[in-house]
């Protein structure tokens, strides 16, 4: 019935490149030369990059001080949760054979601490942390409310397990004088964390803002007392807290703790010599066979020590070049057959 | 009522899927119905409104959801979505599977709605047409949908009829009317219908209103040409109603002022609607393998989940209990089952959620490409190819067995009366030459008639019979008479008789008038004993002008010979002639007559009347009745009708055979005819040994088959150059259980199988047997109702939309207009679609495995706790957005090689045919590759970030930082991998690959800055700044994808060096700069070459015979010249006058006698010259060598053609690759030659220059003496457009044009 009108016009399909499947197309077809030069270029590039990365990684000065064994007595003390209010200090000294030039960063490093457990990561309240609703503890199980039924702020397992060892680094200027190495405790967190993701509730007085909430069970003091000297580092926007709240990908991880304040004798960095850490030991790790360490390190243009990346480039480059040479050999052998490689 | 009807209709599709329909059809014999005239309806029948739509407004949602979730994959994702709602069980949130699932359901829902909306609109249009009906004793205009059973409808000329009805009366004398049935069966001739004489007078409203009585008739069915009913008018004896009185819905009234009819079937019960049934749903092999692979992935998912559960237990064992920082109080319900659910949700994305909808869309577009293909558009009937289903697209690339009908499929089904044998004398042209004229033109017949030859009376009777005994209807236009016939054979015979002076001039319902040699004779027709395929004959009982009762009969020789009386003469001679005709591939009919006595006839008439009012089994009883009177025939002679081969059939068959497709011809025709057609279409060759199986019993058949099997010995089961010929009767025995196995062994060892005299059922049976036995993909192609069975049985059914109605087309999966289009459909579309679909599927699997196995690697370092490493929405948008485009471009635009190559090297078809690139093994390799990639993609960044201090500020990072690194690298790697898989990059590919990467980076940037303004993704806050500023990110950005993909590149290179396939060779040749002219122009040219009107030109070149021979040779030459060494193709010889039509002359300066651009596939010219050192360029190998090497390596073939050799080559200085404008051309030409230079690019062809040369040889015939060498020292004038190719063609008066690619400027 409708056919009539169609019958009149020719049903010859459009002669367009699209409909006739004649769209101009580039064929991915590489000749031997292109393939071989591609391999060669890749190989050389990777080798070059590898060397550069290795060299820059070599320029990094880094020292790691594992204090798990050295503070064994403190560790023992902390295994019993009832001793939470007892202070325990221990001192670890070390020698810096070469001076660390430029910015020096102090990291703490935990071994065997699984910050990447599903339930652990889940247990936080971003709404609370952004300051909009301090009493939002929906996802914080099992640290939602205190025994009295008050919502915990900051709630959740991550906040509860905040790393709370404190350190003082002393430099043995000479055999008798020890100088406290000046450290900056701010600007260790990401900018967006500090200014976007973590916000204190808007109140004149921080302690009022957290009224009606409880401190996390493991914390000795409430959140608004984290840094009473600096209001811009107190409450949820405390740098140490923020750094901890970024949960690490691996059970062994480092977190940025302090930066060297480059004044006085430390304008150039950390001079060589002997140092000691005075550690206020609070964070229990022996229960889960974990270990704790401190890391002092400098950085290069690409960040921290990345021996692996350099090696990866180097190995890739080497393997590619090897492949290049063997393919070249095959190619030369088959030259008279004019064999081509890809596709 | 209508609701139930449409609902049932809608459900039919589901039923088909469940295979219910067939059993329903078998079991459900529709009830007979009674319609009371002019009374309120006593029964309820279906309403006349129709709905072909799948859904209604209300049923859409439930039905659509039901259909979608009956797919396993969708049900699986629904299950996951439900699982995610359990609190705390889902590491990926509650809605991350629901949303992509919804997106996918919405996309395919939109597709369904659009399709259904079109159907609704079409239905609405039909339902709201107007028609006139008698209501309350007056004519009223009502809508179609308001028409009821029992209504009296009045229709006027040109109108379509709203329902099936019984004709009561019409405006024409004797209450006849004409209808066009092309909507129903595709037949273009008008059909005549005649009302019963008892009702013919009822014309006024009053008469009609007073009409009372009832009509009893059979229940609704789908047979167009049968109707059994009885009219009981009050106080009158019952009158039988047959198909002659039935007007069907969808037909159009023609040449009749008006008609009146009583509606008997409405709506879905009309025969038109009953026929519009979808063919059963077929699934492709690839789809089955894919389902298998999804299952494998599901198992992998389970294994991974179990491994992770065990890992979790071990981890907890090691730590005794949960460490203190997790706070174990509330979490004591850590059971194994709970963990398992967590991990199933974690890994469930291994199963590609978007695969099904991607494939659906990809295949839909592939089907569009088939519909759009210019090369498959037949000008003759203005019909395009049509993909009626899209889920078999890739199956077209895997066909191994082709079952073809003969008549109308291999041949044109345009009949011409060629020869005849009358009274033992054969007339027509001498049998030695295949005649080239189109009609019978033997003057001997008429001479014998006029000169009082002893057989004069027989000749007269013979021609009279041809004029009288048929159902043809004449149409007069002035002095011309044209004939409308439902059977092309009959039309051919009537036309043939007309040419001999016996003109059939008029048909009245009860008489026919003929003009025999100017003398007008009227034969009163008493009865027509119709043709049926069962009876294989038709007869007509007439009273001759002399008053004699006579029965004329024409039919198949087998049935006529059974019924000859002993007095019949010329039996032996005619038999010999019949054999001769059949050997020439002609269709034969025997004609005979018998005189009846009045008493005989009266007796028979009583029987006939009784038989024709039987309601049940009327057809059978009528046939029995006919059989009584068709006895004691006197043989007159035989006719022979030629059915010409369709254009390009032999080439197509040669090409398909080269593609390793085995062709079986299944025909209802005679053995001799079939063999002859097989010869002419190159299926059989002279030297090919034949095995003929003709037996009369099971034992004989068994013995014959066993004997042949033994003879073959070790060759059994291999492919031999043998032909097997079986007839229907023998086949019946051969398919018996005990013989079947050895018969199939024998048949499958032969290259060609011909089965003759098959019934439609046998055709379907053979297809079914082969399908089950060899597990190969079968394709059946046919054009008639008798092919429907095999079309539906085969994996792929192709219908030819020809002269025999729409039945085959309506039941097919693909409809094409010409057999030769099969070549393009299979070799090009099939291969491409196969490559596309399989690559798309493999790639979808790959990309999912790559991303989601990473979760497993991460589980190793997070104590199998079920934590995800990526942001949850990134995970679920991976399939929907970030990597959704590359599968589409792979599935829609990928080209393994150009269509020219695919057509030129049919051997390429084997790659897809064997399915080597897509099976479980390939899937495993791909999966292992994906696992390796995911290993690299996780561990490289992981080790890189192990030190946690990667940014310049010394800041430390978190798990998601690592996750975003990995995610970015995954997107890059996966997109580049798609690029590596893509063999041909067009603009869409570029967009998909680079675009996907950009989309992810853009999304990353936006998504990382939403919190807390928009309450999503707090974890992502600030990630983008940190990541993009981090040098390690960019260092990894380079190294990680390189490490992943370089192994693929290396592997591919090594494989292509050591284990090269034909495909690579061909691709290399293609990219060596040899491009060919656009195929469409070439194909158009070919069509003009083969079209009948071309032959008219031939007359100039030496008579019609020569012209046709020329054309044939041309065709043959084309196929063989494909392998002609130096790449000059020869043999096409169109008359020069035609050339303007072919060459797209758009430039004003083109000379009128510019020769046509030649056909599509020039070989590879010898571009190398002497000065080129080959190593650098791909095209260095000389073409002739390459072709030969190809040949030698892959299949020996046939460089038969020895064309004239115009050597066109570039001078040594102008080697390939040098972009020189000026070059030297040298051509060795014969005779009066022209040499021209053409420039082509993708859009147009431009003639640059023509050189003419005087006939230096002085017009000598082609010989070495006539060869002259011409050298030109000039290049083309004017600027060449970029990307154009230069062609040099040589044109010689005698030899036709050649084109030769010169160079890529």
Automatic annotation (TrEMBL), chain A:
GO terms for cellular component: endoplasmic reticulum; Golgi apparatus; plasma membrane. The chain crosses the membrane at residues 35-57, 307-330. Its main location: membrane. GO terms for biological process: phospholipid translocation. Keywords: Glycoprotein, Membrane, Transmembrane, Transmembrane helix. InterPro entries: CDC50/LEM3_fam. The keyword Transmembrane applies. It is found in: Membrane. Pfam families: CDC50. Belongs to the CDC50/LEM3 family. This is Cell cycle control protein. It comes from Muntiacus reevesi.
């Amino acid at each position: 019935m409708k056919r009539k009108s169609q019958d009149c016009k020719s049903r010859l399909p459009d002669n367009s490149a699209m409909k006739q499947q004649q769209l101009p197309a580039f064929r991915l077809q590489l000749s031997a030369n292109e393939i071989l030069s591609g391999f060669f270029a890749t190989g050389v590039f990777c080798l070059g990059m590898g060397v550069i990365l290795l060299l820059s990684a070599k320029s990094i000065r880094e020292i790691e001080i594992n204090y798990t064994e050295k503070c064994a007595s403190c560790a023992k003390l902390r295994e019993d949760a009832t001793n939470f209010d007892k202070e325990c200090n221990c001192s670890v000294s070390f020698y810096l054979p070469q001076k660390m030039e430029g910015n020096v960063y102090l990291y703490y490093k935990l071994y065997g601490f699984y910050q990447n457990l599903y339930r652990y990561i889940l247990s936080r309240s971003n709404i609370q942390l952004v300051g909009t609703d301090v009493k939002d503890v929906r996802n914080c199980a099992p640290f939602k409310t205190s025994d009295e039924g008050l919502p915990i702020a900051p709630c959740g397992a991550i906040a509860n397990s905040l790393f709370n060892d404190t350190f003082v680094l002393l430099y043995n200027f000479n055999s008798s004088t020890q100088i406290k190495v000046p450290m900056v405790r701010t600007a260790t967190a990401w900018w967006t964390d500090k200014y976007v993701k973590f916000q204190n509730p808007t109140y004149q007085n921080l302690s009022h803002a957290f009224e009606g909430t409880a401190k996390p069970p493991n914390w000795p003091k409430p959140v608004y007392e984290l840094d009473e000297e600096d209001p811009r580092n107190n409450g949820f926007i405390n740098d140490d807290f923020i750094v901890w709240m970024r949960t690490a990908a691996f059970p062994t991880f480092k977190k940025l703790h302090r930066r060297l304040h480059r004044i006085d004798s430390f304008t150039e960095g950390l001079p060589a010599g002997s140092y000691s850490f005075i550690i206020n030991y609070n964070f229990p790790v022996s229960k889960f066979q974990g270990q704790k360490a401190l890391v002092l390190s400098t950085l290069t243009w690409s960040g921290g020590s990345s021996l692996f990346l350099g090696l990866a480039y180097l190995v890739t480059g080497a393997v590619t070049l090897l492949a290049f040479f063997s393919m070249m050999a095959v190619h030369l052998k088959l030259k008279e057959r004019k064999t081509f490689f890809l596709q | 009522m209508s609701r139930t009807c449409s609902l049932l209709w809608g459900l039919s599709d589901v039923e088909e899927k469940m295979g219910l329909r067939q059993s329903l059809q078998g079991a459900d014999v529709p009830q007979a119905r009674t319609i009371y005239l002019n009374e309120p309806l006593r029964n309820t029948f279906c309403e006349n409104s129709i709905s072909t739509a799948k859904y209604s407004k209300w049923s859409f949602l439930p039905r659509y959801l039901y259909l979608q979730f009956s797919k396993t994959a969708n049900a699986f994702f629904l299950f996951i979505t439900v699982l995610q709602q359990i609190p705390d069980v889902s590491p990926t949130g509650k809605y991350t599977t629901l949303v992509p699932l919804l997106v996918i359901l919405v996309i395919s829902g939109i597709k369904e709605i659009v399709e259904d909306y079109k159907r609704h609109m079409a239905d609405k249009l039909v339902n709201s047409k107007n028609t006139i009906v008698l209501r309350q004793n007056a004519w009223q205009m009502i809508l179609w949908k308001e028409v009821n059973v029992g209504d009296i409808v009045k229709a006027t000329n040109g109108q379509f009829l709203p329902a099936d009805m019984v004709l009561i009366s019409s405006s024409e004398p004797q209450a006849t009317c004409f209808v066009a049935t092309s909507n129903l069966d595709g037949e273009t001739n008008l059909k005549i219908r005649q009302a019963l004489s008892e009702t013919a007078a009822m014309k006024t409203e009053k008469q009609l209103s007073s009409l009372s009585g009832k009509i009893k008739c059979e229940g609704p069915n789908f047979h167009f040409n049968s109707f059994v009913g009885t009219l009981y008018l009050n106080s009158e004896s019952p009158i039988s109603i047959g198909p002659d009185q039935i007007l069907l819905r969808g037909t159009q009234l023609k040449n009749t002022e008006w008609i009146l009819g009583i509606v008997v079937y409405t709506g879905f019960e009309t025969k038109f609607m009953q026929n519009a049934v979808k063919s059963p749903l077929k699934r492709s092999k690839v789809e089955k393998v894919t389902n298998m692979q999804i299952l494998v992935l599901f198992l992998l998912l389970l294994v991974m989940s179990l491994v992770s559960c065990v890992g979790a237990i071990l981890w907890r064992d090691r730590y005794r209990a949960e460490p203190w920082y997790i706070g174990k109080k509330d979490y004591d319900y850590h059971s194994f089952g709970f963990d398992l659910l967590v991990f199933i949700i974690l890994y469930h994305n291994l199963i590609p959620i978007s695969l099904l909808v991607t494939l659906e869309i990809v295949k839909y577009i592939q089907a569009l490409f088939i519909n759009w293909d210019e090369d498959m558009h037949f000008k003759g009937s203005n019909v395009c190819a049509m993909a009626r289903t899209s889920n078999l697209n890739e199956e077209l690339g895997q066909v191994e067995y082709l079952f073809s009908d003969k008549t109308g499929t291999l041949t044109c089904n345009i009949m011409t009366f060629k020869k005849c044998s009358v009274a033992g004398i054969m007339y027509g042209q001498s049998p030695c030459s295949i005649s080239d004229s189109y009609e019978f033109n033997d003057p001997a017949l008429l001479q014998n008639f006029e000169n009082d030859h002893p057989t004069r009376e027989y000749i007269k009777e013979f021609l009279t019979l041809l004029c009288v005994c048929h159902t043809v209807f004449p149409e007069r236009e002035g002095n011309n008479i044209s004939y409308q016939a439902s059977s092309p054979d009959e039309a051919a015979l009537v036309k043939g008789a007309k040419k001999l002076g016996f003109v059939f001039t008029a048909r009245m319902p009860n008489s026919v008038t003929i003009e025999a040699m100017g003398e007008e004779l009227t034969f009163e027709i008493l009865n027509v004993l119709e043709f049926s395929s069962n009876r294989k004959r038709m007869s007509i009982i007439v009273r001759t002008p002399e008053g004699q009762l006579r029965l004329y009969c024409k039919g198949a020789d087998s049935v006529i010979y059974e019924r000859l009386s002993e007095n019949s003469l010329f039996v032996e001679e005619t038999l010999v002639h019949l054999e001769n005709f059949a050997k020439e591939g002609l269709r034969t009919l025997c004609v005979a007559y018998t005189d009846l006595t009045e008493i005989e006839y009266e007796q028979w008439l009583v029987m006939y009347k009784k038989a024709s009012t039987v309601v049940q089994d009327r057809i059978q009883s009528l046939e029995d009745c006919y059989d009584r009177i068709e006895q004691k025939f006197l043989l007159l002679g035989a006719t022979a009708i030629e059915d010409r081969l369709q254009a390009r059939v032999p080439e197509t068959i040669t090409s398909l055979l080269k593609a390793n497709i085995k062709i079986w011809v299944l025909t209802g025709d005679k053995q001799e005819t079939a063999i002859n057609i097989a010869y002419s279409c190159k299926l059989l060759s002279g030297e090919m040994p034949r095995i003929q199986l003709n037996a009369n019993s099971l034992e004989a058949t068994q013995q014959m088959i066993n004997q042949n099997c033994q003879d073959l010995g070790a060759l059994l089961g291999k492919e031999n150059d043998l032909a097997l010929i079986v007839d229907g009767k023998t086949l019946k025995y051969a398919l018996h259980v005990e013989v079947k196995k050895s018969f199939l062994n024998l048949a499958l060892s032969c290259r060609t199988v011909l089965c003759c005299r098959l019934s439609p059922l046998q055709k379907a049976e053979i297809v079914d047997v082969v399908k089950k036995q060899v597990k190969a993909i079968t394709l059946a192609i046919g054009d008639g109702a008798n092919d429907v069975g095999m079309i539906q049985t085969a994996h792929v059914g192709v219908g030819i939309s020809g002269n025999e109605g729409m039945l085959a087309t309506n039941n097919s999966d693909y409809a094409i207009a010409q057999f030769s289009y099969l070549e393009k459909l299979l070799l090009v579309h099939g291969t491409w679609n196969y490559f596309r679909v399989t690559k798309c599927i493999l790639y979808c699997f790959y990309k999912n495995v790559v991303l989601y196995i990473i979760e497993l690697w991460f589980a190793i370092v997070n104590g199998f706790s079920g934590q995800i490493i990526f942001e949850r929405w990134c995970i679920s948008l991976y399939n929907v957005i970030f990597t959704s485009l590359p599968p589409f471009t792979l599935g829609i635009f990928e080209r393994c090689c150009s269509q020219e190559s695919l057509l030129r090297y049919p051997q390429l078809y084997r790659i897809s045919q064997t399915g080597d690139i897509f099976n479980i093994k390939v899937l495993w390799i791909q999966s292992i590759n994906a696992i390796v990639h995911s290993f690299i993609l996780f561990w490289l960044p992981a080790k890189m970030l192990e030190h946690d201090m990667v940014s310049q500020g010394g800041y430390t990072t978190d798990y998601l930082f690592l996750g975003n690194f990995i995610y970015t690298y995954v997107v890059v790697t996966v997109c580049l991998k798609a690029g590596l898989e893509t063999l041909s990059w067009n603009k869409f590919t570029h967009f998909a690959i680079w675009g996907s990467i950009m989309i992810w980076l853009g999304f990353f940037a936006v998504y990382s800055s939403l919190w807390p303004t928009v309450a999503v993704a707090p974890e992502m806050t600030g990630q983008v700044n940190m990541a993009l500023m981090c040098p390690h990110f960019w260092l990894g950005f380079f190294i990680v994808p390189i490490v992943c993909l370089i192994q693929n590149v290396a592997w591919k290179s090594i494989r292509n060096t050591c284990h090269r396939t034909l495909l690579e060779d061909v691709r290399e040749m293609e990219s060596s700069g040899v491009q060919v002219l656009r195929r469409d122009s070439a194909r158009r040219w070919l069509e003009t070459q083969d079209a009948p009107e071309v032959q008219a030109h031939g007359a100039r070149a030496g008579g019609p015979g020569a012209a046709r021979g020329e054309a044939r040779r041309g065709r043959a030459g084309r196929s063989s010249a494909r392998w002609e060494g130096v790449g000059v193709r020869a043999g096409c010889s169109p008359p020069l006058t035609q050339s303007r039509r072919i060459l797209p002359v758009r430039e004003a300066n083109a000379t009128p006698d510019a020769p046509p651009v030649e056909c599509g596939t020039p070989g590879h010219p010898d571009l190398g010259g002497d000065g080129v050192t080959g190593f650098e360029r791909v095209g260095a190998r000389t073409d002739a060598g390459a072709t030969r090497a190809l040949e030698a390596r892959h299949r020996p073939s046939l460089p038969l053609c020895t064309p004239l050799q115009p050597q066109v080559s570039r001078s040594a200085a102008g080697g390939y690759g040098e972009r020189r404008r000026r070059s030297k051309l040298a051509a060795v030409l014969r005779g009066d030659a022209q040499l021209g230079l053409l420039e082509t690019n993708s859009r147009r062809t431009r003639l640059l220059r023509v050189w003419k040369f005087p006939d230096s040889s002085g017009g000598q015939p082609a010989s070495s003496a006539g060869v002259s060498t011409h050298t030109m020292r000039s290049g083309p004038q004017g600027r060449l457009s970029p990307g154009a190719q230069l062609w040099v063609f040589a044109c010689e008066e005698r030899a036709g044009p050649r084109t030769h690619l010169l160079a890529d400027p």
